[in-house]
Every structure is written in structure tokens, then in C-alpha cells.
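User: Thanks for the earlier help. One more: MmcQ-like protein. Can you show the sequence and predicted structure together?

Assistant: Of course, both are below.
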Amino acid sequence: MTHNNQAADRLDYWRQRCLAKLGSSEETPFGPDVLVYKVAGKMFASLSVNTPLTINLKCDPQEAMILRASFAAVIPGYHMNKKHWNTIDLSAELDEDLLAGWLDDSYDLVVKGLPKALQARLGGQS
């Protein structure tokens, strides 16, 4: 498999993970190079399709600092509120389950900020 095919496969994998979230949608408000994932109109993730492939995820501020200190692939959110968002280099050697957990946490943080009736419709699922 060529490097470009691997990157395309990785992009597709993370697109599917984001779209699998209950009530999620994909948009391109910043142009074709950034895929934005929202639930109830609120962003929970964005994928930059440029090289390297990166994902922005919402994070508890305390946890965000811990992750940045623990993983070289995690930096303050690029073009985001750096207190609440991290950018993760998806080309780095990070455990897939760990990354999936971070995606779940981001989605859950956004859902918890929605009105209670909307939260109930989403079933509180990750």
C-alpha cells in the first residue's frame, strides 16, 4: 500500500468514526481541506485532510494539559480555543483505542452542553 493510500484509508477511518456518533453531521465551512463534525449544530471534531492528517477534539481543560504533556503528537488546538481543544497528529504512533476514547470524550462534552431534551434524544451515547 502506498503512503497516499494509507493516508486516505486513515482519513476514511476517522471520518466513519465521527459520522458513527448519534446525530452527527459532516460539514466543510472552512473549505474542502477541513471536515467538521457536529452534533446538534455544535462542533465536536474536525479533521484536517492535509499532511499530516490531524484531528481537533474538545477536551476538559485540565485533561488537555495532561495530554499535551504526555504525548508529543498532542498540541494546543490549531485555530481553536487552546484551553478547550487539542490537535492530534493522526500519523503518530498512538493507540487507536486511546484516540477513540478521546473522540468519545469530545462528543460527550459537547452533548453535555446541549439542552436536556436534546441530550435525552441523543440517549447520552458515545
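User: Great, one quick takeaway?

Assistant: The domain at 3-122 is CATH 3.90.1150.30 (Aspartate Aminotransferase, domain 1).
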